[in-house]
Design a protein that fits this description.
Length: about 70
């Protein structure tokens, strides 16, 4: 397949997104991984679901990895 390798995601990962939530927060904890990604804003605790493709476009970096190898920069 061409393009970037799919992002490896685990429930419990904490990510920083490029755009802030309306509450001003940038960090989210992944609570569900599938076609849609369910995540909780760590600033206001709101839960949202976004399509995986949109989520991948918005991730800036991983703050914390729930399991597995830390990703190389
Ligand atoms: Zn928020």
């Amino acid at each position: 397949m061409a393009g970037k390798a799919p992002l490896s995601l685990n429930v419990g990962d904490v990510v920083e997104l490029r755009k802030s939530h309306p509450c001003g927060g940038y960090t989210w904890r992944i609570l569900r991984v599938g076609v849609d990604i369910g995540m909780e804003c760590l600033t206001c605790r709101r839960y949202v679901m976004v399509p995986r493709s949109r989520f991948e476009a918005r991730v800036k970096r991983f703050v914390e990895r729930a399991s597995g190898e830390p990703e190389a920069e």
